[in-house]
């Protein structure tokens, strides 16, 4: 039975920044917004564009969720900002090659476009593909990330079908008239590479990345192996090695195949069935000028353009003081290494009763990075949760803070209240939970959490940390005698297995420990100490005791008398060859009378 076609990505994986330059003046054109559970669409061209864009983004969300398994649920509402024209967008362009962009900030996702007409929807699909990669925590090399985003930018909806593929004319023209990049250079480009390129360089990089992904996703000889290639790269395997293992071909050979494929089959397409979905009807409204100013200033802050953001928020604070503007100024002060300003504005925001959970959270994160007192960070996180009890990121950070601040019971309560654990933080979650259980003395729970941490460890260091947590859960603190480099006796803290029946603190590092069960025949006494004469099946043993205070005695008599003994059975633990007495076989560390 033929299967329904699916997109060329591994099941359950999301497959598939930047911002503004603000002037001091208010926006030249009025803004409209369409709001729903999942989207906040700001349109500078009017409410009709906002409503139409909302419908299209809702289709995008449904398509990516159904066809790629992208984990888009549970994420903050996506904010889309669409300008009225490329001229209005130009002052906000991130880089020369940025015709549109996506940014994943602490508290929300942004997609910024020069317009919200159908001609911009290809850009929107490209940026939405980046959002799904970010949501999944999938760190792909630049060629694959941008190639996938370009492939998905061709998405078209009709009736109950979504169509992917087809020619991107600008890319095919670029590839026909310009020499291709060496495949090795393409594959080795770091993730931040596209942002460093000028417009001409970027055009070639995007075109060639698209061509290679177009081949891998649609060519019959390559498509079956593509999910395995992506999985291998997600595991950290270099692209070159993954190509060789999955396809038994070098990347250079694949590059030549891509040349031929694009030359003949650039128009190849893939049709995928769409499930009928009922998109929520958004609330559409005009945006007051002050709110529009704040929206753009907030975008600037998310982009990291701190000085411009500070100027804009300072003007807003002067015009109309509010909790949100104070919080934003506190965030900026933190990032600009101004702890006094950060503390002043942060407290002011809380006093004013800030109603923006996202800003509270962002302030808390940056305050933590700046070394603010735990009480201040806790107040901001608790305020964020009071405003939005479902704010998972805020709850997770609060759990980490409580654990680090010696409040393990509160940490465990917050950890357990999380509805889901993001793959990227699974190891941190389980290892921190194990540590909190250890602080509470709940060893079995700690061991279970340490085992989960080990299952999610992604490096040698993380595996070692999980093993240490398990070791601590299985052992307890004790003391033992040791010696320094000068031979002086010292007490040293160590760990021993729980309820270890044979633990002896007097056994020193380097001892050749022996155990023997024998009859005690005689105790010889002299000025330097005592010699216990034992008789075992292996013969007579002479064991020296130099300091009775450093011998572990169990079930022994109240006192010992020098001279012949009655032959009591005793288990002797001794360090073979230790001590300076020439006639002794070893130094007694422990005696257990039977």
Please give a handful of descriptors for the protein shown:
594 residues, alpha+beta, Neutral Protease, domain 2, six-stranded mixed beta sheet, five-stranded mixed barrel
Description:
This protein has about 600 residues and is α+β, with helices and mostly antiparallel strands. It has four domains: about 5-135 and about 295-305, no CATH class; about 140-275, Orthogonal Bundle (Neutral Protease, domain 2), CATH 1.10.390; about 425-505; about 510-594, Nucleic acid-binding proteins (OB fold (Dihydrolipoamide Acetyltransferase, E2P), Beta Barrel), CATH 2.40.50.140. Helices cover about 45% and strands about 20% of the residues. It has 22 helices and 18 strands. It has helices at about 45-70, 85-90, 120-135, 140-150, 170-175, 185-190, 195, 200-220, 225-235, 240-245, 250-265, 290-305, 305-320, 325-335, 340-350, 355-370, 375-385, 390-405, 410-415, 425-440, 445-455, 460-475, and strands spanning about 30-35, 40-45, 80, 100-105, 110-115, 155-160, 160-165, 270-275, 285, 475-485, 490-495, 515-525, 530-535, 540-545, 550-555, 565, 570-575, 585-594. The strands form four sheets. The protein has a six-stranded mixed beta sheet, with helices on both faces. Strand 2, helix 1 and strand 3 (about 80) form a beta-alpha-beta unit. Helix 1 packs across helix 3 (about 120-135) and helix 20 runs antiparallel to helix 21 (about 445-455). The chain is elongated. It starts with about 30 loop residues before the first strand and ends with a strand. The model is unreliable at about 1-25 (pLDDT under 50).
């Amino acid at each position: 039975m033929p299967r329904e076609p699916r997109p060329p990505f591994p099941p359950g994986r999301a497959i598939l920044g930047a911002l503004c330059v603000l002037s001091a003046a208010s926006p030249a054109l009025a803004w409209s917004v369409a709001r729903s559970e999942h989207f906040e669409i700001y349109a500078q061209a009017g409410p009709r564009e906002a409503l139409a864009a909302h419908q299209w983004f809702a289709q995008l969300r449904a398509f990516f969720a159904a066809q790629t398994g992208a984990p888009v649920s549970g994420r903050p509402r996506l904010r889309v900002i669409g300008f009225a024209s490329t001229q209005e967008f130009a002052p906000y362009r991130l880089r020369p090659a940025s015709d549109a962009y996506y940014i994943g900030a602490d508290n929300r996702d942004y997609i910024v476009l020069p317009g919200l007409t159908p001609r911009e929807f290809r850009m929107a699909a490209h940026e939405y593909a980046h959002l799904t990669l970010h949501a999944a925590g999938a760190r792909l090399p630049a060629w694959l990330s941008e190639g996938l985003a370009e492939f998905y930018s061709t998405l078209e909806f009709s009736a109950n079908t979504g169509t992917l593929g087809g020619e991107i004319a600008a890319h095919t023209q670029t590839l026909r008239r310009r020499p291709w990049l060496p495949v090795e250079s393409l594959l080795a480009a770091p993730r931040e590479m596209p942002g460093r390129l000028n417009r001409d360089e970027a055009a070639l990089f995007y075109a060639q990345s698209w061509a290679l992904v177009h081949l891998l996703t649609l060519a019959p000889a390559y498509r079956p192996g593509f999910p395995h290639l992506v999985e291998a790269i997600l595991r950290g395997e270099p692209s070159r090695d993954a190509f060789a293992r999955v396809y038994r071909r070098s990347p250079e050979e694949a590059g030549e195949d891509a040349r031929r494929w694009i030359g003949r089959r650039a128009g190849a397409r893939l049709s995928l069935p769409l499930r009928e979905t009922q998109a929520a009807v958004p609330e559409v409204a005009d945006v007051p000028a002050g709110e529009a100013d704040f929206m753009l200033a907030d975008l600037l802050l998310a982009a990291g353009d701190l000085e411009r953001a500070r100027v804009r928020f300072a003007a807003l604070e002067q015009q109309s003081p509010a909790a949100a503007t104070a919080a934003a100024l506190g965030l900026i002060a933190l990032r600009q290494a101004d702890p006094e300003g950060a503390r002043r504005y942060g407290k002011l925001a809380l006093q004013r009763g800030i109603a923006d959970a996202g800003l509270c959270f962002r302030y808390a994160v940056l305050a933590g990075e700046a070394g603010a007192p735990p009480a201040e960070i806790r107040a901001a996180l608790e305020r964020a949760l009071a405003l939005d009890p479902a704010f998972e990121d805020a709850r997770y950070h609060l759990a980490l803070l409580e654990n680090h601040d010696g409040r393990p019971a509160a940490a465990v309560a917050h950890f357990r209240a999380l509805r889901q654990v993001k793959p990227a933080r699974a190891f941190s979650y389980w290892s921190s939970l194990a540590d909190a259980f250890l602080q509470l003395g709940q060893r079995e729970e700690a061991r279970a959490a340490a085992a989960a941490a080990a299952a999610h460890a992604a490096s040698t260091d993380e595996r070692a940390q999980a093993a240490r947590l398990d070791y601590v859960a299985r052992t307890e603190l004790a003391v033992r005698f040791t010696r320094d480099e000068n031979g002086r006796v010292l007490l040293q803290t160590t760990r021993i297995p729980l309820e270890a029946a044979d633990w002896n603190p007097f056994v020193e590092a380097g001892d050749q420990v022996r155990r023997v069960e024998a009859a005690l025949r005689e105790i010889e006494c002299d000025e330097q100490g005592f010699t216990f004469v034992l008789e075992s099946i292996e013969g007579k043993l002479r064991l020296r005791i130099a300091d009775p205070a450093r011998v572990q005695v169990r079930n022994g008599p109240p006192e010992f008398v020098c001279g012949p003994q009655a032959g009591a059975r005793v288990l002797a633990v001794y360090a073979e060859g230790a001590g300076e007495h020439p006639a002794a076989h070893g130094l007694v560390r422990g005696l257990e009378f039977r």
